[in-house]
Amino acid sequence: MIKIALAKGRLGEKGAGFLAKCGVDTEILKEDTRKLVLENKDKSFQFFMVKPTDVPTYVEYGVADIGIVGKDTLIEADKDIYEMLDLKYGKCKLCIAGFKDRQKQFTSSHLRVATKYENTAKKLYMSRGEDIEIIHLNGSIELAPIIGLSDVILDIVESGNTLRANGLEVLEEIYDISARLVVNKVSLKTKAEEILPLIEKLKGII
Questions:
Q1: What percent of the chain clears pLDDT 90, i.e. is strictly above it?
Q2: Whether residues 60 and 101 fall in one domain
Q3: b/e burial code for range 89-114 (CB count within 10 A of at least 16 → b)
Q4: How many domains is the chain partitioned into structurally?
């Protein structure tokens, strides 16, 4: 049995669609159920629908052999797993954004960065030798520089419409983000005969 952790929401739904195109029976995922562990009819695959931020943890600990998750989550989690494939959907960018003339907007002697990607922000600015204060927010991050809570934000940008509507703009693009297929290191060895052909099939439909 191959165990797969899928991120709840559009990312996981599209991932399930990709798996179905590869011949994986994913009909169980279409059922309206509160079950947390789902198996297909021949019990060849088991699925977990979990929070996106938890996918790398399930895969690292081997509870799941495979996971589908966004690159932003992988960077932030920094888990000991194999990133095997860029599935090329859910595309966006992880960016630093704020007011164009950000020097005039500084709220203190050092840069304040609002983000939910704390680890990513720390590594990024540490590599540049910059002194920053990280303000953790989970939603409406664009609000932070507008009301003076932060100088800039580090966040996912898709269309950029919300930024522009609030007088903000992308100051720097940091990473290209998309859905990625990840695999547990031990599983790749012990279940290679099942996992590697699946990866090849996925490559063929991207």
A1: 84
A2: no
A3: ebebbbbbbbbeebeebeeeeebbbb
A4: 2
